[in-house]
Every structure is written in C-alpha cells, then in structure tokens.
Amino acid sequence: MKRLLQILIWTAVAGLGAVALGTIAFHRGEPINATWFVLAAACSYLVAYRLYSAFIAAKLLALDNTRATPAERLDDGRDFVPTNKWVLFGHHFAAIAGPGPLVGPTLAAQFGYLPGTLWLIAGAAFAGCVQDFVILFCSIRRDGKTLGEMARDEVSKRGGLIAQLAVLTIMIILLAVVALVVVNALKSSPWATFTLAMTIPIALLLGVYLRYFRPGRVLEASLIGVALVLFVVVAGQWVADSPYLAKVFTLGGVTLAFAIIAYGFAASALPVWLLLAPRDYLSAFIKAGAIFSLAAGILLVRPQVLMPPLTRFVDGTGPVFAGKIFPFCFITIACGAISGFHSLISSGTTPKMIQREGHARFIGYGAMLLESFVGVMAMVAACAMTPGVYFAINSPASIVGATPEAAAATISSWGYPLSAGTMTGLAHAVGEQTLLNRAGGAPSLAVGMAQIFSSTIGGDRLLSIWYHFAIMFEALFILTVLDAGTRVGRFMIQELGGRVWKPMGRLNWMPGILLSSALIVGAWGYFLYQGVVDPLGGINSLWPLFGISNQLLAAVALVVATTILMKMGKLKWIWVTLLPMGWLVVITMTASYQKIFSANARIGFLAQANALAAQIAAGKVAAAKIADTHRNIFNLRLDAVVTAVLAAMILVLLVEALAQWYAILSRDKAPVLQETPYVATQWAEGD
Amino acid sequence: MQTLWRQLESALRNFWSGIRQWSGDSAYETYLACAQRQRSKKPLSATEFYVEQLNRKYSRPNRCC
Questions:
Q1: pLDDT tens digit string along A299-356?
Q2: Within a domain: residue A638?
Q3: Per the count of CB atoms within 10 A, which of A411, A624, A660, A671 is most buried?
Q4: What pTM value is reported for the model?
Q5: Which A residues 108-167 touch B at CB under 8 Å?
Q6: Which chain A residues in 191-250 lie under 8 Å from chain B, judged by CB atoms?
Q7: How many whole angstroms separate alpha carbon A383 and alpha carbon A381?
Q8: Structural domain boundaries enclosing B39
Q9: A77 to B34: CB separation less than 8 angstroms, yes or no
C-alpha cells in the first residue's frame, strides 16, 4: 500500500513537472507567470534526485555506509571533522554558490527565457550534479585528495600538472570577470560605492573583535557586522544626497578598477584574520539571507515574465554578448548548470567532513540542484523586467548609444519598445544617475530583485533601498570570491615557483608573499583593466573566456571521474560521466574555435583585431586614439592565445586519458586504482 | 502537549547547534573535544586555534564562482 502511494506521489510530481516544462516551452504571446518556472524546476529536481541520483548512488558508485570515511578514520578536529549531513550540506552549498549562477543566467536572458532555463535544469540534473557527486565520491575514497592529485594519480603525471595550470588560469580569468561585474555595478554610483567601501572597515573591525576580544565567536560578530552593513546601505542614500560626499564617491571605471586591484593585493598579503575571513563571514550570512528572500519574494509576488521565450538574438547578434545559442548559451551559463570550479570544493573540504559515504548523494548531487534553482530564480528576476529595460541596462554604449534617447531609439527599433523617460525614471527611482550601459548582469539583477522585493515590502518608496541592498549583496560576495581567490592563487604561484626556486615556496617568506601576490593581482588586474577600457564593454570578451575555462575544468573533472570509474570496472554505466564530458568537450572546443577564428568581428578575437588594424591602416582612427587601438589589438590577440592554450590543455589531457582507457579496455595492463583500502566503520548505523 | 513542547525544544536546540556548526562558531569546542578524545597534552588556545584554522582554510579553494 505504502509502495503504491509512493508511486502515485512520484507520478504526480513527474506529471506536474512535465506540464510546467511544456507550458514554459510552448507558451507564446502573452507573458507567462513565474510560478511555472518554479514548478518546472522544483519538480524536475525532485524527480532527478529521487531517480537519477539514486541510480548513480546504487549502480555506478555503490555507496557503502559500512565503510569508514576519512572524517572517521583521520578525525583531527581541524580538517577532518565528522559533520552532520545537513550542516555539511549548508557548508558545501555556501562554498559552491557564488555570483556565477546569478550573473550567467542574467546575461543569457538575451536569448529569451527558454534556452537558459532548459539548460539550467537539464545541465544540472545530467551534468553539474553528476560531476559534483562523483568527484566527491572519488575524493572520499582517497582521503580527501584534490582534483589535481587525483588527476596525477589516476590519469597521468602530466594530467596533474594540467589540472593545476587549468585551475590557476581559470582563477585569473574568473577574478578579472567578477571584478569587472563589480566595476560596472559601482561606476558613477556614489551610493553603491560608499556602501561597498564601508564594508572594508566593518570587516576590519570584526577581524580585530574575533582575533583579540572574542576569539572564534563568529555568530555574534557576524550579527554585529550584518547590522552595520544594513545601516551603511541606508546611509549610502545620505551620501548620494550630499553634494560633497557624492562627488568623492562618484568614481569612473578605471579608478574603481585600480581600487579593486589595490584591495585584492591587500587582502592577499594581509593576515587572513584581519580582512578576508571576517568579510567571508559577513558575505555568507548576507548571501543566505538574500537568496532565501529572493525565493520567498518570487513565490509571494509570482511576477509575470515579460521576456519572450526566444528573442531575435538567437541568431548570434545579441548586444550583451555576440554568438549563437550553440555554443554560447552553454558557456555563458556555467555555474547553475555545470561548473568545473565545484570539483575543487568537492575534492577540498567537503570529503574530509562527510560522516557516511551515503551522504555524498544528498550533499554532492543535492547542493548542486539548489544552486541550479538559484540560477532559475536569477533568470526569472532578469526576465520579469521589460525586455527594453533589460537590453538598455546590459548593452554597451558602442551598440545602443550613451544617452537615454539614443538607447531607447535603438532598442525600440529591435522590436522591444522603450522610451527614454522609462530609463530616466527607473534610474531616479532606484537612486542612480543612470542605469544605461551597465553590462555585467549585477545591476539588471538588482533592478529585478528590487522590483520583486518592493512588491512584497515597502512598495516604490523602498525601491532604491532594495536596489542598493541587492547591489551590495552581489558586490560583497563577489569581493569575497575575489580576495579568497587571490589568496589561493598566491599559494598556487608560490607552490609552482617553489619548484623552480626553493625560497619562493616558503609560505611565510615576506618577499615571496609580496611577489606572488603582485603576480596574481597583476594577472587578473590586467584582464580587468582590459575589460574596463574595452569599447565593447569587456563582458563580451571576458565572460565567454571565463565560461570556456570553467567548462574546461569541468571537462577535466569528468575525464578524471570517467577514468576512475573505468578502472573500477563500471563500463556498463560509464555513459553517466562520459556523455556530459563529451558534451563539454564539444561546446568548449566549438566556442574556443569561434572565439579565436570566427570571421565575425564581434565574436572572433582575431577578426576583431584585424578589423581594428585595417581601420588604422586606412587612416580611419583619430591620431589620439591610435595608441588605444593598438593596445586593444594586442589585448584581443592575447585573448586568442589564452583561449588556444586552454583548449590545448584539455586536448592533451584527453589524449593522455584516451591512452589510459585504451590500455584498460584492451587489457594491456591491469588497472591500478589508487583507492584507500576498506576499513569498516566503528559507528552504529544511526550515527 | 508536554511531548510536543519537548519535541519543539529539541528541534530548536538541534537547529541552533547546526547554525553554530555551519558558521564555525563551535569549531573550537569541536577541536577541544577531539583533543580530549585523543589525549592531546597541550591543545591550542582559542586564539591560536582560530588563527591557525583560518590560515589553513584560506590556503586552498574554498569559495566558488
């Protein structure tokens, strides 16, 4: 009877999901309600978790709850700490959920709501969650080894080095692109700039409190910090209203870029307890609060989605970024569908804290489903605003014009009606001088979130407060990614440098710290500066580069996972990781090829460089701009080289893996699995 | 009624303990308990543990994009 009831319930969930998916896929004409998105996503995730993850856990991985995990065997109260599965789920989710699932879907909304939403749901269920789950399992069986170590042990020595270099490269591109999102959100906005600047002294205050007054009392310190941050969000309005202070905090893109570069250097070189850790605590609480509020807001308001399912920009001529749905939708939305970076978390802290192998399904597969849900909510928030407004905020001035009148005329001519007064009125309502040309996703998401929040609490009166709360929330946790990433990048450079010159590897040697910090900050700072001065808005070239590198890392993770599963003799089910791996290789290779060689100057780096060179040769560039144009040409060629190097890295790894697979399949050599031997758990079943 | 109250109290206690573990608020207590189990002679002080733990945590990728 119970079984029959279960079957009925799950059939109903699947049926409801199918109806909701069908509705958003085939709906045409009138706007569609956001409730369909929530239903489609939630039902699909439930079915995927109930069926697909259970199948992977049982057939592919054969999770074994009688086997002691590293947390039990190596318990040291520091790294290896047995942790309740709900708490660890929260830890893991807080670590994997960054700005990616918010920004990517917002940018991909230029194709319409449909391609991005379907990729978010299907990508997570069949690729992203699988990657996180399988890599977590592999790392648990290897005492919490990192992806790089597993690549070295299971694929080849060269594979390990490639994984390490890929991580460093993706980190550099990632940090540059997220910093660019912050710059575009803060430029010419005294309110937002003041609020974010104030989070630095607040973090320092918390750092001193936690280090000297109440060591480790994170909760009380975070509460104080969150209250102070909320206060400075409101106080930002007074700054924006004061003629003198507003002038001080009104900064251009280049100045903001240098300020962020200086901040990144300080966060990398200063003691971690002073700035980095307290900011991370603040960010974690505000992030959790904002994501839950967004979900609650969408459920309460149930906004109409005004963006059509498909826009005219599916042909690749989009103003936000150039390129067709295939492959660009799939690399623009990385986090939220599949993100290679997650494999570093799944092979980092989480495997050292898991109590039972069986928990890996809930934590690895489940947390990624939740992240995908955040991506769907970001898509809803972006698509709930008028398409004309969306394009005005996200398009660069070189495409739509720099004034409200010019932008309104251009965007209306595309078939998305917009009046200049709408943009001026909206900017005024959210307390900004302008909302035009803010490519990067953060401001449009903030407008979408503010509209949803203000429909719940406060109405139009609080629109500006909600907008700046949303901007502060995005910028705060982007800076957390930035400073934590810079510090990790510094360690990677020190480790790689230590192989060449021993003293560089000493983590407490001050010249080494300063040099490696300068190197990592200089690397992402260069790309950031390039993005800020790029006439096409920077996002057009940098976000695809980030997407390609992140998806390449996912391909690396899936190559490692497939190799391990093959060695385990799981050939019958190998398609579970092999198919997403193949898909990632196809999309990243196609995107890399198009970004380097496309004849369309808005897509191809080389074509754009050649077009600029031709303009100089034809005397069409003003004398004052020739030096800038030469720099742009150099940058575009550099982007082409970086893309080519990334693509070459995955191809080399793939060849190494294919050789391994051939040897295993042809039984030339017995597969050697570097798994920790079985030890029975000492814990009772219910522990 | 009393049983219901007890269940609610226990649920709240678990929730609070979960929040403390998630945020890192109870990390030192966890460490001390472990040190005691392993009969460590000179466990770190709260400040030493806090700084050491942060240095380890932020030396590897711990925040994603």
A1: 898 999 999 999 999 999 999 999 999 999 999 999 899 999 899 999 989 999 999 9
A2: no
A3: A411
A4: 0.94
A5: 146, 167
A6: 210-212, 215-219, 222
A7: 6
A8: 2-57
A9: yes
